Structures are given as structure tokens and as C-alpha cells.
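hiii so um. not sure if this is the right channel but i have a protein structure encoded as C-alpha cells and i wanna go backwards to a sequence. like what aa goes where. can anyone help
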């Protein structure tokens, strides 16, 4: 019997067919795909998982490049307008899905990489807050910006004021200009200094640069960490592979950060959920610590859901 699970990091699509396109995994049978509207309710009931946060992100800069390659004559403005209306639909869909399935908690795609100028970004943020968004997802690597980009400051300020959390990808996914890496944890420090009451979840705690996250945990008490991507061990390919923290060190590092600040997340469907739950069960945490990491910390953060 599994203890209660609240997965703070899932990417949801509309259908099995869409999941297959967005998260292609060779040799992964469709029967196993659950991170979509068609199957998610059955999965939550069968596993059983008490709830998930849908940290949905749509990668507009990549989509723009693809369109440009297909149609070099098209006007840039028209392409962006079209892509942003798709992003708006995507946010509306996950917000509506929460009405049909309250166990799916919606975080919306709102960052400067998607909306490109602060006015459009803030307009979309207000629209989503009005429709019941429970938080925001940002992705510096895929959005191609640094987290301390001042164009993001009004968003951080508004979330801080509203008491809404933001979850960001962190780690090595996509470099930046020169040797810089957009999502390297140290790049977030100016944000933590400027917005000390913002409830900020740094995703992928065990992945590359985990040493930087330990220092951030010490110096910035408002920062939370999710475990998405898992810990490194022989039979499991963690996010960032051999650069990820080993499972043998997981309990020690979770305690060093503070057990109440670590949230279970899977990053499904890109990474499998069940093996990551079982990793934590084998990590050497006490039952009380497990209960906190697997569900209670996220429940407390989001309540009343
Ligand atoms: Zn993710």
C-alpha cells in the first residue's frame, strides 16, 4: 500500500495521441500513457494518487522556429499572434479541466519566453488568476531567458502579492549565450533577493548543479524544491544522468535542505512516476518524513486547493 501521493510536477496533454507527439518515447506502449485528459482520472484512482499539479508549458520559441523554416515568407507578427493564441487556449483548457477534475491543480504557462513583452505577459497572468490558476510554470531554458530578466519582475511581484506559487525548471536543459546556462540555479539568486516572500519552487532538485541548490536553501528560506527527474542509481536514468545526486545521498540532502521544503514531483510523462515514488520509499527517510515529502508539503502549499 502506497502512502498518500501528491505529485507537484506533471505535464498534461489533451489526449493519448497528443501525448505521443509531445512526449515521444520509443517502445513506450500507448496503454501506459496516462498524462492526458482521457486517462488521468483513472490513473489517479488506480495508483492511487491523491492529486497532481499540471505544470503545463508550451514551447513557443521552438514552434516559432519550426514555422519559420516551413514558411520563410510568413510575417513574424502573424506567427507570434497565432502561437500566443494557442498558448492562451492551452492555459484555458487546463483551467477548465480543473473544474471537471479537481485532483488536477492548474499551473499556467506564463513567462517572458512565451509572451515576449511584459504587457502581454501580465494580461495573460491576470486572465488566468481570474479563471482560478493555482500557480505559474516558467522555463528559462526552453523560453530562452534568464530568470532574473527584469521583464519578469512584475510577474514575480504580482504572484508574491497574490500568495501564488511559481514553479521553474532548473538545471542543464538548454544552454544560454556563451557558456551561460539559463536555468542554472545561481541565476535565480537575484530573484530570491528581490522577492523574499515569493513562494518559489525550484524543480529538479537532484539534477545537475545540486550543490548550488544547497547553498540557495541555506540562504533563501522561501525557496522550495521538487524532486522531479529522480535520483541517480544503476537501474534508473535520472534527469541529467550521471550528474544527478545519487539515491544513497538523498535522505541526507533532503534533511540538509529541510524535509518540509522538499516536494515529490515526477516530471511525468517524460520521466516515469512510479519508479520515482519507489526511489523515495527506499531512500532511508522515516515514515513521517516520507509523508511530508510525498504529499503533506504540497498539500500545505496549495491548500485550500
Ligand atoms: Zn517538467
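sure thing!! here u go:
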Amino acid at each position: 500500500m502506497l502512502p498518500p501521493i501528491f505529485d507537484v510536477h506533471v505535464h498534461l496533454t489533451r489526449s493519448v495521441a497528443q501525448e505521443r507527439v509531445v512526449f515521444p518515447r520509443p517502445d513506450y506502449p500507448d496503454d501506459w500513457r496516462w498524462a492526458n485528459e482521457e486517462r488521468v482520472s483513472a490513473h489517479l484512482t488506480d495508483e492511487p494518487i491523491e492529486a497532481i499539479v499540471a505544470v503545463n508549458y508550451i514551447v513557443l520559441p521552438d514552434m516559432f522556429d519550426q514555422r519559420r523554416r516551413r514558411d520563410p515568407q510568413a510575417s513574424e507578427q502573424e506567427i507570434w499572434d497565432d502561437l500566443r493564441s494557442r498558448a492562451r487556449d492551452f492555459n484555458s483548457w487546463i483551467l477548465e479541466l480543473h473544474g471537471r477534475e479537481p485532483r488536477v491543480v492548474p499551473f499556467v504557462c506564463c513567462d517572458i519566453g512565451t509572451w515576449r513583452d511584459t504587457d502581454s505577459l501580465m494580461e495573460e497572468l491576470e486572465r488566468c488568476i481570474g479563471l482560478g490558476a493555482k500557480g505559474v510554470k516558467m522555463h528559462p531554458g526552453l523560453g530562452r531567458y534568464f530568470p532574473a530578466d527584469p521583464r519578469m519582475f512584475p510577474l514575480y511581484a504580482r504572484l508574491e502579492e497574490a500568495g501564488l506559487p511559481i514553479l521553474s525548471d532548473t538545471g542543464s536543459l538548454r544552454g544560454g549565450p556563451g557558456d551561460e546556462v539559463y536555468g542554472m540555479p545561481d541565476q535565480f539568486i537575484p530573484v530570491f533577493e528581490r522577492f523574499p516572500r515569493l513562494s518559489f519552487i525550484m524543480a529538479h532538485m537532484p539534477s545537475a548543479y545540486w550543490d548550488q541548490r544547497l547553498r540557495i536553501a541555506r540562504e533563501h528560506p522561501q525557496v522550495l524544491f521538487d524532486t522531479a527527474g529522480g535520483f541517480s542509481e544503476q537501474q534508473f536514468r535520472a534527469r541529467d544522468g550521471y550528474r544527478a545526486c545519487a539515491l544513497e545521498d538523498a535522505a541526507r540532502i533532503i534533511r540538509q535542505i529541510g524535509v518540509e521544503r522538499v516536494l515529490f514531483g515526477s516530471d511525468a510523462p517524460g520521466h516515469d512516476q512510479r519508479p520515482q515514488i519507489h526511489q523515495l520509499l527506499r531512500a532511508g527517510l522515516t515514515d513521517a518524513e516520507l509523508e511530508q515529502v510525498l504529499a503533506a508539503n504540497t498539500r500545505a502549499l496549495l491548500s485550500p486547493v
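oh and The mean pLDDT is 95.
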